[in-house]
Design a protein that fits this description.
- The chain has eight helices and five strands.
- With 209 residues, it is of the alpha/beta class.
- Strands 2-1-3-4-5 form a five-stranded parallel beta sheet, sandwiched between helices.
Length: 209
Amino acid sequence: YASIAATFMEFEGIVPKLVKDTKASRVCVMHLDDESGLDAVRGTETGLKTINMQIASRASYKRTDTDFSSQLQRLAADKCELVVLGSTIRDAVGIMSGARKIGFSPAFLGTQATYSDLIPKLGGPAVDGFYASMRTVFPYPDESSPNLRHWINKYRTKFGEDPNGFAIMGYSAMEAFNQGAIKAGKDLNNQTFTKAMNSLVITPDMFGN
């Protein structure tokens, strides 16, 4: 996880931008009742301070919960326009599905833990318009880059499935290691590798990272 930004850092940066893009005037948080969920609250809170806003309402739930109706009713009553989720994939799908059932249609934002094709596969139309933060872009087979299309086809052949954002993250991490090892030279050890990585300017890869 060394190359993954903490949830706090994610939301501190992305929430103000999404508020601007969605023109939301009331930002709320729905989160797991644990440290990971509280990180989402803190990041949202800090990000909103930079644009002179504060969290309008928040609701928490336990990891074992499957019914989110009471929390969603409260957020709907509080007129939330953007709901930041400190949740897992399962929770996010359940929350958005529950929201649609009661006619509650804010914009939803999730962490990189929810940046997955499982969200639309499990949630269907209920998750349309969902935003998720991520440091890598999702690879699509119809990309314009021939190199990227070639890589996606090779990935499918080898693993029997389409690559996702985490596959891209792994590739990018190994490419960074590769550049560092080459710069360290034949005398590759912990010291030379560390020195090389600390001075390395990593060039953008074919994914745009």
